[in-house]
Design a protein that fits this description.
Length: 168
């Protein structure tokens, strides 16, 4: 069974027997809450990497890649769902943006870490020309991803359909 979550994504789940739509709220003490937060962050990180791998291998659609417009729309949707949902969405967004920032792409923090690793292994930093040109490539990759995500947003939000109805 595929169930749509509150963020527009699909989750494949198995159903056996009786289910309930009721959400169960559980309170933890501070230490348990921190431990649960670490576990949830780890699980979310693994799920993100799995989804990214599925997109790369073509087993998952790129329609799920969203940019600033979809984030804004989802933020508005989440705002009406209560404070707990808003906090979860904020955490989800922060974790995903943090992971993207750690990708080994020059101009992102992960790219800087990659160069530091190369320097640690070689004993000297990569040449300035290599750093310059890899920075250009990294910037092109990041800008391409931003354009693609925004295009996806415009397509998913039916902006093109709306604009074509105004022209016709």
């Amino acid at each position: 069974h595929v169930r749509e979550d509150m963020f527009g994504g699909g989750q494949r789940i198995g159903l056996i027997g009786i289910s309930s739509a009721e959400v169960k709220r559980v309170q933890h003490d501070a230490f348990t809450a921190v431990g649960r937060a670490v576990i949830e962050t780890y699980d979310l990180t693994i799920s993100t990497f799995k989804a990214l791998w599925q997109i790369i291998t073509g087993t998952r659609s790129t329609d799920e890649i969203g940019g600033p417009l979809r984030i804004a729309k989802m933020s508005g949707d989440v705002a009406g769902a209560g404070i707990e949902t808003a906090i979860f969405f904020t955490a989800l967004l922060s974790i995903n943006l943090g992971l993207i920032n750690l990708f080994p792409i020059p101009v992102l923090d992960g790219g800087h870490l990659l160069f530091y690793g190369v320097e640690a292994i070689r004993g000297k930093p990569p040449g300035p020309k290599l750093q310059e040109y890899s920075g250009y490539v990294g910037l092109a990759l990041v800008l391409s991803l931003m354009v693609f995500a925004t295009w996806n947003d415009l397509s998913q939000l039916k902006v093109f359909d709306y604009l074509s109805s105004l022209i016709i």
